Amino acid sequence: MSFRGLHLSDVPKSSWILIIAGLLTLFTTAFLFLEMGEEVLEQETFTADRTAQNIVSMFNSETLRAVMGLITEAGSVIWLTAGAAVIVVYLLFFSSFSRWNAVYFALNMIGISIITTVFKNFFSRQRPEVLAAYDGTGFSFPSGHATGAVTFYGFLAYLVIRSGLATVWKWILGILLIVLALLVAISRMFLGVHYFTDVLAGISVGLFWLLICIIALELTIWNKYRRQI
Question: Structure pTM?
């Protein structure tokens, strides 16, 4: 199958993998979030929250809380906003990436901020503990640090994969970025400002929106390439 001389076989395998895996993940994360959201609206208690809290209590300590306090800053609004501004400027003026990457990265970050705010106010779930020192104020579901970290560091991981770096560095940097996003999300439980289901919902929503933006970007670049041909 082709479009005016452009064959579908010209599309890189990595693009197909991203799109197919993204679609499957979209359905999974959407289902997971809707299931949890329904329970939250009914003010049900989650066994998973109690179990996770017991596990956290077993390993938590003052030293670990201090470390988690530093890690959680990597998902703060100030840090992500400043980081996003730097990345957009870099993508627009200093990188070899298509400028569409900057557009969709900005859409990725602005969109998740709006989505998180809407969901927080809609579900209006109270936090397990209010701690302003760790941005632990406002409503709890889903975790804003989790949604922000997943979309921000997830998109950076995507850019690394799409870059011209050697494969080994793609793996190293990609894994580090994904681990950092997960650590930011987990830190919210260790600091006591979120339930496990808040964090899981945040990861689900963040991943859902991230994949929508990446798939849209892939299709936009593909369409641009098709028109050039």
Answer: 0.82
